[in-house]
Amino acid sequence: MERKKKPTRHSKVTSLGDAAILARNALRERPEICLGGLFKQGRPVALVRALLAAGAKDLHVYSSPGAGYDIDLMIAAGAVEQVFIPGVTLENRLCPNFRSAVESGQVTAHALDALTVVGGLMASAHGVPFQPIDALRGSDVLKHNPLIREIDCPFSGRRIHAVGPIRPRVTFLHAQEADRWGNLRYLSTMVYADQLMARASDMVIASVDRIVPDDVILDDPSRVTVPAHYIDAVVEVPYGAHPTASFPGYAMDEEHIDAYADLGDAARTGDRAGLDAYIARHVTAPTSQEDYIKAVGGADNLARLKPEARTE
Amino acid sequence: MSAAFSPLEQMVVVLARDLADGELGAAGAAALVPMAAIALARELHAPNMTVGGEMFFNPEPGHLYPSMLDDRALGRCEAAETFIELFGHSHHGLDFFFHSGLQHDAYGNINLHHVGGTLHAPKMRGPGAANLSYCHTSTRFYICPTVHTARNFVEKVDFITIPGHLSGPEAKRAAGLTKEGPRFVVTPRAVMDFDPATLRMRLKSVHAGHTAEEVQRHTGFDLGIRGDVPQTPAPTEEELTVLRERVDKTGTLRI
Fold first, then answer.
1. CB 3.0–4.6 Å: which of A248, A304, B76, B134 could bond B97 by disulfide?
2. B-chain residues within 8 Å CB-CB of A85?
3. Is the keyword Transferase assigned to this protein (chain A) (predicted)?
4. Is B46 helix (H, G, I), strand (E, B) or coil?
5. Does B146 touch chain A (CB under 8 A)?
6. Domain edges within chain A
7. CB-CB: which of B70, B87, B91 is closest to A122?
8. What's the gap between Cα A230 and its chain centre?
9. What domains can be seen in chain B, in order of their start residue?
10. At what angle do helices A96-103 and A69-76 cross, to 10 degrees?
11. What is the ipTM of this complex?
12. Buried b (16+ CB within 10 A) or exposed e, B155-193
């Protein structure tokens, strides 16, 4: 008997440009985007830049509870309408474009907290209509938080809070490694809320510093942080988190982020030329990650971020 | 006599002395002083302290970093968690946590959202904050801003991001804040605690080289100074040596 040829499994490896268009089109249906990582670590910044270059607009941005550089850049590029991130800061200084845009009323920044965001992602990931929260008291954030409701606990009768599912239309993640099917391996110590976001979202696109052979995954399955089942596309982007960190590969580029923030501060006081030039040079002009790496001084320059990322 | 020390080193020592062996606690982002205090306490008298609740357990950083939420600041650590576990920690609470903000008021409430205007039309928009639960699910917390002026110590904050004692015992009870809340405030100038009857902030001690009059002048509300104010016990020789040799090897607290 003649054996039928074995059908082929589809690789999820995608180009940065195609991934950006996929995301942009999805976000036109529903503008809710969620970003993995935390503050200056593990942020999918190459995907964000590509999305901005593809012309995304009026985005509602979610993240793990703390973000900085990327949300500020998205605002500077005029792509954001609402921010659903509890803490927005560069940590050593405030986010200049976030500040300006919220102070001028261009962007709405909702008052939220970590449990609301994490709880909303949990409800979505678990497929339940809401997540109870019983640890929010006394803060003025509760008066303004648009995502929570007060409910009576059906067991104790006490007034508690509930948050409905947060279901991003698109989530961007950054991991150190994946196979071609999209099994993500995080080699960093922290994995933030990325596992939750992967399960909570309609579409998940991951950038990775490198694609590894199938056997790397198969030989050590408990090391997989996010299974390919949750991933729609994976893009190999060396330094894909730059200028944020991708531990243990490279540390955050504090110098780059500080220089960017200086341009943002200048824009706050009326001189936008430097910020516009920054966006043109890093976001609009590059047609590939190689172009971007050249724009930030080349791979040799980025190699300085490697020693700092390793813990001795 | 102990050697000269910096204002931040004095703050670290004040905090470290109050952290007990066997406790569970953490600091969040922007937490140079709290992280140093935790590390110093572990070195000196609290070897069984668990640092946890922020997505990892017992970090061993190579040197001091300004944020605890940083793989570099973890250095090596015993275990890693995620925001999923942080959800639980936030409900169960820790023994101690630390906060500081743009504004701090007479009842230890902290503002990180906006100064002037309203939330959605702010004169100055701040960063907000991620975790609003540890301040009241934890046994206690400490307020430790690295500046102390009449602009960041105000009678009433423009927005309560992190509740302290609200407007006193009754308001605190009504809001369901059942734990201790802010235990004391330490700044580069002084230590302040809270009057147990009113829960208003009062001057407890001034650091070496500072005066009660000066602290009051740089505070936007009455610190209830009556008579002589004691001096904050300076770092001992041992505290300073361990701090510099084992915790802050690069001298970050002296810059």
1. B134
2. 128
3. yes
4. coil
5. no
6. 17-111+167-175+188-208+225-305, 128-163
7. B87
8. 16
9. 7-254 (3.40.1080.10)
10. 50
11. 0.96
12. eebbbbbbbbbbbbeeebeebebeeebbebbbbbbbbbb
Q: Which residues pair with B162 in a beta bridge?
A: B110
d(CA A178, CA A225) in angstroms, rounded, equals 10
Report the alpha-carbon distance of residue A144 to residue A116 in Å, rounded.
12
Residue A216 has phi, psi (to 5 degrees) of: -60, -40
A10 CB-near residues (< 8 Å, 6+ apart):
none
Are B62 and A141 inside 8 Å of each other by CB? Answer: no
With a CB cutoff of 8 Å and minimum separation 6, the contacts of A26 are A169, A170, A202, A203
Q: How close does chain A come to B247, measured CA to CA in Å?
A: 16
- Pick from B74, B87, B125: which is nearest to A109 by CB? B125
Which CATH entry fits the domain spanning A17-111+167-175+188-208+225-305: 3.40.1080.10, 3.50.50.60, 3.40.50.300, 1.10.10.10?
3.40.1080.10
pLDDT, tens digit, 9 for 90 and up, residues B84-114 = 999 999 999 999 999 999 999 999 999 999 9
Q: A189–B160: do the CB atoms touch at under 8 Å?
A: no
Q: Which of residues 62-81 of B touch A (CB under 8 A)?
A: 62, 66-67, 69-72, 74-77, 80
pLDDT value at B29 more than 90: no
CA neighbours closer than 13 Å in the CB half-sphere of residue B213:
0
Are A196 and B84 inside 8 Å of each other by CB?
yes
Cα–Cα distance measured from residue B231 to residue A281, given in angstroms and rounded to the nearest whole number: 55
pLDDT in tens, A247-283: 999 999 999 999 999 999 999 999 999 999 999 999 9
Total residue length of chain A: 312
Contact A244, A260 (CB under 8 A): no
Residues of A in contact with B90 (CB under 8 A): 114-115, 135
Amino acid at B164: G
- pTM greater than 0.90: yes
- pLDDT tens-digit readout, A203-257: 999 999 999 999 999 999 999 999 999 999 999 999 999 999 999 999 999 999 9
Q: Are B137 and B179 in contact (CB under 8 A)?
A: yes
Check residue A102 and give its pLDDT: 98
Q: Which of A106, A147, A311 to mutate to test the interface with B (most CBs of B within 10 A)?
A: A311
Question: What is the chain A residue with the closest CA to B164?
Answer: A138
Nearest-by-CA chain B residue for A98 = B125
In contact, B165 and B125? CB cutoff 8 Å: no
Cα four-point dihedral sign A171, A175, A181, A183: negative
* CB-closest option in A89, A113, A139 to B127: A89
How many Å apart are CA B215 and CA A302, to the nearest integer?
46
Interface test with B, best of A134, A140, A142, A310 (most B CBs within 10 A): A140
B188-237 pLDDT tens trace = 999 999 999 999 999 999 999 999 999 999 999 999 999 999 999 999 99
Please tell me the distance in Å from B9's CA to the nearest CA on chain A: 19
Instruction: Give me the helices (H) in A104-223, please.
Output: 114-126, 141-144, 194-200, 214-218
